[in-house]
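Supplementary Methods, section 5.1.

A reviewer requested that the exact input to the structure prediction be made available. We therefore reproduce it here, unchanged from the version used in the analyses.
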Amino acid sequence: MKKILTYDTTLRDGTQGEEVSFSAEDKVKIAKRLDAFGIDYIEGGWPGSNPKDMEFFEKIRSVKLNHAKIAAFGSTRRAKNKVEDDANIKALLEAQTPVVTIFGKTWLLHVKEALQITEVENLELISDSVAHLKKNGKEVVYDAEHFFDGFKTDKAYAIKTLQAAEQSGADVIVLCDTNGGTMPWEVSSFVDEVKKHINVPIGIHTHNDSELGVSNTLAAVQQGAVHVQGTINGFGERCGNANLCSIIPNLQLKMGFDVVGKELKKLTDLSRYVSELANLKHRKNLAYVGESAFAHKGGVHVSAVMKTPKTYEHIEPEVVGNARRVLVSDLSGKSNVLYKAEELGLKIDDKSPAAQKIVEEIKEMEHYGYYFEDAEGSFELLVKKHTGEIKKLFELERFKISIHKDADDKEARSEALIKIRVGDETEITAAEGNGPVNAMDKALRKALERFYPQLKDIQLTDYKVRVLDSQNATAAKVRVLIETKNGTSSWNTVGVSSDVVDASWKALVDSITYHLLKAK
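The structure derived from this sequence is encoded token-by-token as follows.
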């Protein structure tokens, strides 16, 4: 089985994407995970460009990696500098990494307009820089920047730049689709042509501006490239880099190459870990690793998947560390409800009237505005209501919300007064809060804690409001989704109303009821 080498540039190219930022410590943590996953090369940053990257290279030197090699990234020497005196080249050597990756110009537009040097001078920059790094004992990866655009403009000169790197000792030459505008058939043709002129291993580095980053990478490998570059989750400048979370399973599962072996089952965890450290919501629709990658919603689909998963799944989700999910919605049939109930450990007889009643109520509620795909707590309560496994733990007699704002107040003040009944007893409490929903939440918990002290263990961790019919302006119906945690687990509940406080009340009641039933 042919080996394909993986080169991750999440820590450098990935951080050029909008909203993506890692501390030096974050980068070390990610490097460890990439190493454990089986990535061959980890590009840590551009030494000398910023203090954070220098700190990373200092920190990573004391970390024992089991597999991956760390690479420092930079450019060829500047035109007016001797290679041994060039600040960029010096910084690359001072990073003390076993691998150095440098990029050089391929496209004459950049040579003449950006660098404003001659074609011969550009070839000298490439040759001098690669040779000097090799002389200093480095494994050298040469990134031919804008290769495909340069090849289209002047094929002969583009090949000369690659030969300059090869003759100076480059260990691998990477063809870069820097602007992300190349088509897969062009990649195939150009790589095939390059193989006729150079003998060192060929790599591929693509961007996703035409939504073809992954496709172009696979096309290059199909034509003989053995080194692939990309980022976790496709992070990167503009539309992002080629996504290694799609490239790796495609190479290994679909094309039969040796990439990361049995470590592939860690892919989903790695993807979500990187999103978490970037403080970004993990994209649900990511292929292979997204939460929706193996999610089934249509009743026909679910019915088939319950019998034979491959009817609607191209691989088993466990192979990449993901899991199958069945969603409940107004598109649900009985199969969805039964599968989801079984997943949650709830027993429903598929021939019982309860199963059909649950389906009917879900459809009616979703028509009204409810959404159960992300509210499994509310779904479980709905099921238990129909199967007779739930009883009312408390009842609302009334609540009153007041909001005060004097002329001198910077912010309004909210107060909530709640009267509830638990069995034969009633409790009246009041609380102030940061807004009416927070005040209501505090007052409700305060009223219930005398009866249910275990409520002290939970906290509301997320609160989302969505307007469902904006054409009705301030009279619009809203959906409130609440996430709650108790230290060991989390659950989501939902409420819908034309009044945001009422919708929040419904979601809060479900949240508290769910916890109390589980805590019994």
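The chain has three domains: 5-277, 295-367, 395-519. These observations are discussed further in the main text.
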